[in-house]
Amino acid sequence: MTARALPGAPAAEALLARARERLAALPGGAHLHVIRLGDDPASVSYVRLKDRKAREVGLRSTVHALPDATPEADLLALIARLNADPAASGILVQLPLPAHVNASRVLRAIDPDKDVDGFHPVNVGGLWSGETRLPPCTPAGVLALLDHYAVPVAGKRAVIVGRSNIVGKPLAAMLLARDATVTVAHSRTPDLSAVTRAADILFAAVGRAHLITPAHVRSGATVIDVGVNRHAVADEPPRLVGDVHPDVRSVAGALTPVPGGVGPMTVAQLLMNTVTAAHHHAHP
Ligand SMILES: Nc1nc(=O)c2c([nH]1)NC[C@@H]1CN(c3ccc(C(=O)N[C@@H](CCC(=O)O)C(=O)O)cc3)C=[N+]21
């Protein structure tokens, strides 16, 4: 068997087309503010990608590129100013933050109605209790991708490998809400392959290059690769690889590529969330 590829680009384009449509119904438009500290190359490149896509969709976009040593108080003051600015629709603080900044305090400072990452405790709680307004971008993008390719979720056995706050845990909440039977495994799960082989849909979100091999996958399963690892191979420039080994293609029924799979969905969902936030401000 060779797995059907589930590329992110067409699904992301469909999501962006819907965002554009909803944006057209907003006379004031929408404005995304991204705050980035320091010059970590991955963060610089992700933020540039978000900014460029936002403009393509017709959103206003401002990147606040601050020095790595920015005091937490200055960051909190900027967030307070954007919270109070009625023209600022969405606020995103790029992670990871430098060690001298308390990330959870910073995320809690963002107005939950402008929290386009969906990381504020109010939005996290809302996600688990069925009152989602702004869903976290990567898990919501993953579900949009499954929907785009008409992969059924209800009644299926979903296994997530990874328990992060930004992917594994919120993805579990969203799959439960869609009537999947959900198992969350992780790097310390004994006999991981026995757990993952039960999956109809397997989500790899641990952040370890090529952790998931054919031995982890039941024949015909759908495999969603959420990993974005900068992989260094001797004598080659570093490249982006997923959590799923390429040999899984010969076992899975369908597989998302890396790059070009979940990544573009994350960005598209962020812009959709920004439009959603602007709608909430226009019609509270
Ligand atoms: N507050 C916050 N929110 C985030 O959503 C957030 C974050 N911090 N910190 C870092 C992670 C990572 N992340 C990605 C977004 C897009 C791609 C993406 O578009 N990747 C492309 C390739 C990009 C490339 O080649 O570098 C792809 O997979 O095809 C990947 C990763 C968002 N994150």
TrEMBL record:
Task: Identify the InterPro entries for this entry.
Answer: Aminoacid_DH-like_N_sf, NAD(P)-bd_dom_sf, THF_DH/CycHdrlase, THF_DH/CycHdrlase_cat_dom, THF_DH/CycHdrlase_CS, THF_DH/CycHdrlase_NAD-bd_dom
Give the GO terms filed under biological process for this record: L-histidine biosynthetic process; methionine biosynthetic process; purine nucleotide biosynthetic process; tetrahydrofolate interconversion
Transmembrane ranges? none
Q: What is its EC number?
A: 1.5.1.5, 3.5.4.9
Tell me the route in metabolism or biology where this protein functions. One-carbon metabolism; tetrahydrofolate interconversion
Q: Does the keyword Amino-acid biosynthesis apply?
A: yes
Listed A to Z, the keywords are: Amino-acid biosynthesis, Histidine biosynthesis, Hydrolase, Methionine biosynthesis, Multifunctional enzyme, NADP, One-carbon metabolism, Oxidoreductase, Purine biosynthesis
GO MF assignments: methenyltetrahydrofolate cyclohydrolase activity; methylenetetrahydrofolate dehydrogenase (NADP+) activity
Q: What name does the UniProt record give this protein? A: Bifunctional protein FolD
Q: Which organism is it from?
A: Deinococcus maricopensis (strain DSM 21211 / LMG 22137 / NRRL B-23946 / LB-34)
